[in-house]
Amino acid sequence: MYQIALYGKGGIGKSTMAANISVALARKGLKVMQVGCDPKHDSTRLLLGGKAQPTVLEYVRNTPMAKRRLEDLIMEGTDGVLCTEAGGPEPGIGCAGRGILTTFDTLKKLGSDKLDVDIKVYDVLGDVVCGGFAVPLRGEYADGIMLVTSGEFMAMYAANNIMKGLSNFDTGSPRLIGIILNSRGVEGEETLVRRFAEATGTEVIAVMPRDRLFAEAEGQGHTVRELFPDSDISKVVDSIAQRLIDVSEGKAECVYPHPLNDDQLSDLAAGREIRKAESGSEKRDGCGACTSCKRSIKDSRIMMSCAAYGALAAYSKMNDFAVVLHGPESCLYFMDTSRAKAVLELYDRDIFEVEPAHNVRCTMMDDAVSIFGGVKYLEKALNDTIADGFTKIAVVTTCMPGIIGDDCISVIDKVMKHNPGIDIQYVPTDGDVVGDYTDGFMMAASNIVHMIDTSVEPQRGLVNLIGTSFFDLHSRKHIGELDRMFGRFGLEVNCRFLDETTSESVENFCRGSIDMILNDTANNRELCDMIRQRTGREVFDVPIPVGRYDYEEWLGCIGDIMGMEDRAREEMDLVESEYESFVEEHRPRFKGKKVLLLNKLSFNIDWLIDILLDLEVDFIRVACQTSPRKRETTTVSRHIDMITQNYTAEMMKEDIRTGHPDLIISDIMMPTGGTRFARVGKVGLGLRPSLDYVVYLENIMRLPNDEGWKKGGRA
Question: Shortest CA distance to 687 belongs to which of 489, 491, 545, 517?
Fold first, then answer.
């Protein structure tokens, strides 16, 4: 079977050409099938006596999968031509391009490839060569491509774009058969189109005259080739059909197109000599794809998680919010199971005392919804959620509604109008369109920050904790230590922003008199900036401390603000005594050891640098390797002068090769070439966790380095 696709600007006459060509091929003894790939679903009308046939997408929408049959989708037209129409969604709703993909998949599953057909003709909308409408350009669907155009600039512009699309689906063999000029009667039209064909490396294979016979035949619901077989039009159509037969039998050749750039198209439209393309911008004849046309994988940014997941995670921390994920079930599965695994791990480690609320719903968008639009599914999900008693809802969008253009705002406004008192917050992450996990988290956090009631008066002794992750406090040991630290100064936690909290707690954020950052990271500083802009309040000078020096600084500041300087001094003396005794005992194990320390700005490690300096290690390098989102982030450290920023993997390999470190410490797993490796993470708060971590390092240093499982571990 030979497959051809007709492309061209909308309204240029593709369907008329396709139907006439199909009849001509059939009358030459070939078995023909025509597939209409236009949402107007009028490609096969002239083959069916002017009747419209049911579309594949309409059939998919209304017929259960188990009851679908190929014969329901195919009608026999003039001279036995088999006809089928893709159809499309309602105008302005859903994605017609995705509908093309579904049509082809449905026909294939129902056995269309097994039909007794010699030539299959695809009639394709050519204005929008997106992924869906470009499907017939792919090698498995089109052995040859014909372009229909007139002498009008936009028609040639569309044809040129289709050539570019054809280049993107290059199969290694030329597939452009040529151009059909469907005349509009414009002066100099044929000359202009032939110049265009020559410049793009192809030819005009037929010139279709402008003739009243087209209108007369179409008025009767038939083709010119059927009603007026002896007309000049029919002779031209027959010549096109013969050209297709010759190409399919190898008697005529296809070509590789050379699409024009914008400057060249301007030259063509202005009647000027078409300038040559810049050196290296054209493909070589016969080349599948030169290296200049391929995108280097090094230039791509690999996103480990999507913004929708980040937004869902943020709202999942709000115990009285329900999250409606507008997207397919698969997205919910991956997001929900990822979060569930994390929660289960915390349960296994006896961290949570009370099971956190987890109110996540999904609109369950499927393939049909992606075509016909999912706003009705969203409306139903919102109404069901309200019926379940939720008055606060967050809507988070995945890729699918963003791609098809679902008008979620109108749905949300409608539901809120019919349900007074219901608060629905919208986060249009559209999957990963706005970025990665952190970007989505921050979008959601921005919404939540605006829930803060700035009229609430602060109360002495209440503290707000601010952080994107509260892992440091998700253990009874760390919670107990925080209570002890705060209790010494009569402090209590008012709001944990953002961690297993409620709307009421967030609304009363300003009741806290001190806003304290949980740990000094780029993400937490971004969160603090949002809160500062909303409330006008400054964050406390020192984050929740880890290690001796941060702890002493924190104690001094708390003592000053609470008027308890003597109590702060007492605590400092205890910290200093314990720390000095510990360092004195453990220094012999570390003194002179070569250490490579690497951090990715996921948290502040000044506490670790401090204690390693006091243990007198020999730093080969202290380095910061930032992620793509934080490339412009300023590293914050009191040891900034000794930190190498923008550290690369190549630099690390060289440091390992030349420095021969005794120990590599990092917050990411990495190949170390046999060197002992220690994972550093969030260790908690106060003095004790930093000392416990040194004991962990000491154990790694003590173990022999000849067994893989002894080379490193997790703190």
Answer: 545
Phi, psi at 571, each rounded to 5°: -65, -40
User: Between the CA of residue 237 and those of 82, 224, 226, 228, 242, what are the distances in Å?
Assistant: 19, 9, 11, 12, 9
Polymer length in residues for the chain: 715
**What is the distance, to the nearest Å, from the Cα of residue 629 to the centroid of all Cα atoms in its chain?**
15
C-beta atoms surrounding 503 within 10 Å: 16
- The Cα 317–Cα 484 span in angstroms is 25
Checking DSSP bridges between strand 82-85 and strand 75-76, what pairing results, if any? antiparallel
Cβ–Cβ contacts within 10 Å for residue 383, how many? 13
Cα–Cα distance list, 704 to 118, 523, 589 (Å) = 72, 38, 14
Q: Which two tokens stand for residue 463?
A: 């503290």
Rounded Cα distance, 611 and 578, in Å: 13
Q: Residues with catalytic annotation?
A: 9, 14, 40, 127
Which two structure tokens, joined as six digits, stand for 273?
């000599």
Q: How confident is the model at residue 36 (pLDDT cuts 50, 70, 90)?
A: very high
Q: Measured at the alpha carbon of residue 624, what is the angle toward residues 620 and 626, in degrees to the nearest 5?
A: 150
Secondary structure of residue 688 in the 3-state scheme: helix
Q: What is the pTM of this model?
A: 0.74
Q: pLDDT tens, 203-238?
A: 999 999 999 999 999 999 999 999 999 999 999 999
Structure-token match 């420095």, residue found = 659
Q: What are phi and psi of 211, to 5 degrees?
A: -145, 140
3-state secondary structure 436-486: EHHHHHHHHHHHHHCCCCCCCCCEEEEEEEECCCCHHHCCHHHHHHHHHHH
**Residue 457: Cβ-neighbour burial (10 angstroms; 0-12, 13-18, 19+):** exposed
421 to each of 184, 232, 355, 386, 392, how far by Cα in Å? 60, 71, 28, 11, 9
Asked if 421 and 389 touch (Cβ cutoff 8 Å), the reply is no
> What are the structure tokens assigned to 425, written together?
């917050």
Tokens of 346: 């915390």
Distance CA 273, CA 258 (A): 16
204 in Cβ contact with 178 (< 8 Å): yes
Q: pLDDT tens digits, residue range 362-417?
A: 999 987 787 888 999 999 999 999 999 999 999 999 998 988 888 999 999 999 99
Whole-angstrom Cα distance, residue 595 to residue 663?
Answer: 5
DSSP for 7-71? EE-TTSSHHHHHHHHHHHHHHTT--EEEEEESTT--TTGGGTTTPPPPPHHHHHHHS-GGG--GG
DSSP states of 515-562: EEESS--HHHHHHHHHHHHHH-PPPPSSPSPBSHHHHHHHHHHHHHHH
CB-side neighbour CA atoms (13 Å) of 573: 6
Name the band, by pLDDT with cuts 50, 70 and 90, for residue 557. Answer: very high
In angstroms, the CA 192 to CA 512 distance is 75
